[in-house]
Automatic annotation (TrEMBL):
Higher taxonomy: Bacteria, Pseudomonadati, Pseudomonadota, Alphaproteobacteria, Caulobacterales
InterPro entries according to UniProt: P-loop_NTPase, Terminase_6C
Keywords, alphabetical: Viral release from host cell
UniProt key word DNA-binding: no
Every Terminase large subunit gp17-like C-terminal domain range: 242-383
Coiled-coil positions: none
Protein name: Phage terminase large subunit-like protein
Keyword ATP-binding among UniProt keywords: no
Transmembrane segments: none
A Pfam family that the UniProt record links to this protein: Terminase_6N
Length: 398
């Protein structure tokens, strides 16, 4: 579906469900980013079929009716004229002319989802639910109709363990929508006013950019990352590509980060990290990154099988001899000196790296999510460029 709707002027790619096979799609969005519109559009598309049963789940029944059903971006407002649904308040359900029905449920009453069954479900503002685990599990037990039941979740993110566990589940697809991308549909001056109040803060990162921002204990602060954005210099003294290899082909990502140094400042050039590649697939991606940026050094973490990593990179015709390093301390301890570089304003991000920055803000916090492979690769790269031989983390060259 995503490929087919790319030209639709009022939908961005992030607002369209993934085109491939999935069970759960999570759209993280800032305030006013159009995530509710995306959820409503997805369900209205499904409702063109006949006699399907859906679930609508919000923080409270009031939210389901006022936002998901009757809101300006809700199901009724954007439904096509020939299939515009009607709300039956007594039965708490929405009925389309096509024969489809959607029943409203509240996260305040998880047991209300025991018994009913559905072809699909749309869950809104997941992070604001009162009983997240019970509501989500009961909802999923009810998704048992049709050949491929699906769940779409739209929410402004918060640094809660439930969201991190959800995003770490196999088969979950995630997109992110920022408020700025939907500025044309917002009141004039809305975005500028909020940025004047919250620019560079965690509030901006979470509520406008749709990033998961950790609270107390986070090493990397949103304000430091916002300040770090800048341009690449015309010339660099040295370029390093760092690799955090995956433990398996289908689990964690392979972290691949390119960074350079000019004088006393480091420049993050690219995040080429990827998930789901075969061993030779990620090795070739590493070699491609080394060549694209004319790297002077290639660093690879050796904790997941050092000699295998070296052999794969040699097989992929790597122009550099990989320097294998072994982590002798925990991730948080290794990252602390790099976080200090950001506080000092000595690191520049030469592009937007939302996935990388989200992992950085989660590094060292107990969240139960995926391994921070991108952030690990960044720490290795900046350590080699700016800190090797002078401070932590300790490196053991193999």
């Amino acid at each position: 579906m995503k490929a087919a709707l790319q030209a639709t002027p009022w939908l961005s790619d992030e607002q369209v469900s993934p085109p491939d096979d999935w069970r759960t799609w999570v759209l993280l969005g800032g305030r006013g980013s159009g995530k509710t519109f995306a959820g409503g559009f997805w369900m209205n598309e499904l409702a063109k079929g006949g006699d399907l049963t859906f679930a609508l789940v919000g923080p409270a029944i009031h939210d389901v009716r006022e936002v998901m059903v009757e809101g300006p971006s809700g199901l009724k407002a954007q439904a096509p004229r020939d299939n515009r649904p009607r709300w039956e308040a007594g039965r708490r359900r929405l009925v389309w002319p096509s024969g489809c029905k959607a029943y409203a449920y509240s996260a305040e009453d998880p047991d209300g989802l025991r018994g009913p069954q559905f072809h699909a479900a749309w869950a809104d503002e997941f992070c604001a639910w009162r009983n997240i685990e019970a509501t989500l599990s009961n909802l999923r037990f009810g998704l048992r109709l049709g050949p491929r039941p699906r769940l779409t979740i739209t929410t402004t993110p918060r640094p809660i363990p439930e969201l991190r566990r959800l995003l770490a589940e196999p088969g979950v697809r995630r997109d992110r929508a920022s408020t700025a991308a939907n500025a044309a549909n917002l009141a004039p001056g809305f975005l500028e006013h909020l940025r004047s109040l919250y620019a560079g803060t965690r509030m901006e990162a979470q509520e406008l950019e749709g990033l998961i921002v950790e609270d107390d204990g986070a090493l990397f602060r949103a304000e430091d990352l916002a300040r770090a954005r800048g341009s690449r210099p015309a010339r660099l003294d040295r370029v390093v590509v760092a690799v955090d290899p995956p433990a398996s082909a289908h689990g964690d990502a392979c972290g691949i980060v390119a960074a350079g140094r000019r004088g006393g400042t480091a420049y993050v050039l690219a995040d080429r990290s990827a998930r789901g590649l075969s061993p030779m697939g990620w090795a070739r991606r590493v070699v491609e990154t080394v060549r694209d940026f004319g790297a002077d050094q290639l660093v690879a973490e050796a904790n997941q099988g050092g000699e295998m990593v070296r052999a794969l990179l040699v097989q992929a015709d790597c122009p550099l001899k990989p320097q294998l390093v072994h982590a002798t301390r925990g991730k948080r301890v290794r990252a602390e000196p790099v976080a200090a570089l950001y506080e000092q304003g000595r690191v520049v991000h030469c592009d937007a790296f939302p996935a990388l920055e989200e992992e950085m803000m989660a590094l060292g916090c107990d969240g139960g999510g995926r391994s921070p492979d991108r952030a690990d690769a960044l720490v290795w790269a900046l350590t080699q460029l700016m800190l090797a031989g002078r401070t932590q983390p300790r490196l053991r060259v193999l």
